[in-house]
Write a structure and sequence with these properties.
Blueprint: H1 8-26, E1 36-40, E2 50-53, E3 69-72, E4 77-79, H2 89-101, E5 107-111, H3 114-120, H4 131-134, E6 140-142, H5 153-161, E7 166-169, E8 173-178, H6 181-204, H7 213-222, H8 236-244
Parallel strand pairs: 6-7
Antiparallel strand pairs: 1-2, 1-5, 2-3, 3-4, 5-8, 7-8
Helix pairs in contact: 2-5, 3-6
């Protein structure tokens, strides 16, 4: 499929989204053919309710720019990409809910990683015991309601997310929302690292040292995009170079 059938901005969004899919397994955050990363096409006329999503049946390492499916927030396929596959309904239910209610969100990532699921099962949730975890001091929680295929769960999910950009789906996994693909990937990477560190600390059984609330608040503030910089944007070109050194076929 030729990139010439798409506008420049849509093609760039497809390339960046495909890159995010390819990066996830390289950092241990994929789940066979499951889970999703969705992106809105920024600035595209009439595309406010259109998102790109992966074909259900492909592993993350197979995703290319041309294989991504364009759907609207009602779940209708607008462009099937280069496959004959459809999106996963559970992915549509979760991701479309966030995109519909948060117009500041350009990208949503949901994972079922081992440590993300482990922390999602812990009653205390994510503990502010590392600098990385303190970045997510405003993380929210959504109680498990079984496989996410019921449309009426959407209202409760977005209400629980609120204005936060990170959420733990209890007994399920992790979710981040970001203004861009680059920022969302960066947030998910560090949320995953925070969960891995917590699981490691708790597994060794040592007494945990907790920073003061004042230090947690200070650290959280320093990660806000308006304080120092929007984390993820500076890192993204390095992420693309990392991919290109291994396999640049995500751009096709």
């Amino acid at each position: 499929m030729s990139q010439h059938r798409y506008s420049d901005i849509e093609w760039q969004t497809r390339v960046d989204l495909a890159a995010a899919y390819r990066l996830m397994p390289l950092f241990g955050m994929s789940d066979l053919i499951y889970n999703h990363i969705t992106a809105r096409i920024p600035g595209a006329p009439g595309s406010e309710d259109e998102i790109l999503i992966n074909p259900y049946g492909w592993m993350y390492e197979e995703i290319t720019a041309s294989s991504l499916i364009k759907i609207n927030l009602q779940g209708e396929v607008l462009d099937p990409g280069c496959t004959d596959l459809a999106p996963n309904r559970a992915g549509y239910v979760i991701h479309s809910a966030v995109h519909a209610h948060r117009h500041d969100v350009g990208c949503v990532i949901h994972t079922h990683t081992r440590c993300g699921m482990a922390v999602s099962c812990m009653k205390q949730g994510l503990l502010p015991i590392t600098q990385t975890a303190m970045r997510f001091a405003d993380i929210t929680y959504h109680d498990y309601e079984s496989v996410a295929i019921d449309m009426d769960e959407q209202q409760r999910l977005v209400a629980d997310l609120g204005a936060s950009n990170s959420m733990i789906l209890r007994n399920h996994g992790l979710l981040v929302a970001g203004p861009s693909i680059a920022e969302a990937f960066n947030a998910m990477y560090w949320l995953e690292m925070a969960c891995r560190a917590q699981v490691d600390v708790m597994a060794c059984g040592a007494e945990i040292n907790y920073p003061s609330q004042a230090i947690v608040d200070k650290t959280f503030n320093l990660y806000q995009p308006h304080v120092r910089r929007p984390f993820g944007l500076m890192e993204w070109p390095a992420m693309l170079r990392y991919l290109d050194r291994r396999d640049a076929s995500y751009k096709t």
